[in-house]
Amino acid sequence: MAINWFPGHMKKTQREIKENLKLVDAVIEIRDARIPRSSANPDIDNLLQGKPRIILLNKSDLTEDRVTKQWIKYLTKDDIKVLEVNCLKGDGIKSIKPALLALLKEKHDRLRAKGMVNITTRVMVVGIPNVGKSTFINKMARNSTAKTGDKPGVTKSKQWIKTAIGIELLDTPGVLWPRFEDDETALNLAFTGAIKDEIMDIEELSYKLVERLQMYYATKLKERYKIPEIFENPVDTLDAIARKRGTLISGGGIDYNRIAVILLDEFRAGRIGKISLERPSVENEKLS
């Protein structure tokens, strides 16, 4: 599938991130815990210019715990702390302030030495579309200041949000990059909803998702849809799922659009099970 989505406001956001970086002490980058590699904008490292950073692996409730722990170990560096969170429920949110204070200890010590007592930490929040930035900010602010939605591209301009714990957050729109480096990255972003379904062939996307899941999570697929077997051809597996769900048209044919919507919705909601589409190692182990 040829997948790319880079609206004009995303190019503008890249410029604004670079311009506003001098206004903040640190950056919180939110990634999708199911795809920590694919949900990392490769332009971010250059844009952030070595600014202290916390990476939040959001939606960790939808992933295999042991794989997420591997990612935390893999991504952690001296100037980067990595935390697993569930921004919707607030799991892991309380760990963010201590992590920020640890990253900024030297700077805060210098400010206190100059007599400053009440230090406000200003943080920029960045990430790809639909990864949970606005949900995170609302949880931190304990209100609905930032717009949220289950479609990518909801936030279109920067917003400053104050919290009760001495942190001010600069929200930025979700931003992708002009050209995806490989098909797997593009598909992972499409599977998880970072790319608008409206620009996709969701029937083909559902076929690709079945192909991936039956390779690594065949047992979960069988259990969720109560199908007797996984077929060599993913189309046959998709047909079996459609028949179990009754998504048929007159004459007994398959309503592929309907089963595609069901399959994608259930995957994104975690109803198929805890699934990690990427691992730190190059070789994906079979987990069916």
UniProtKB/TrEMBL annotation:
What Gene Ontology molecular function terms does this protein carry? GTP binding; GTPase activity; RNA binding
Cell compartments where the protein resides? Cytoplasm
Give the primary localization class: cytoplasm
Give the function comment from the record.
Required for a late step of 50S ribosomal subunit assembly. Has GTPase activity.
Instruction: Fetch the PANTHER family from UniProt.
Output: MITOCHONDRIAL RIBOSOME-ASSOCIATED GTPASE 1 (PTHR45782)
Concerning NCBIfam families, the annotation shows: GTPase_YlqF
Q: Output this protein's name.
A: Ribosome biogenesis GTPase A
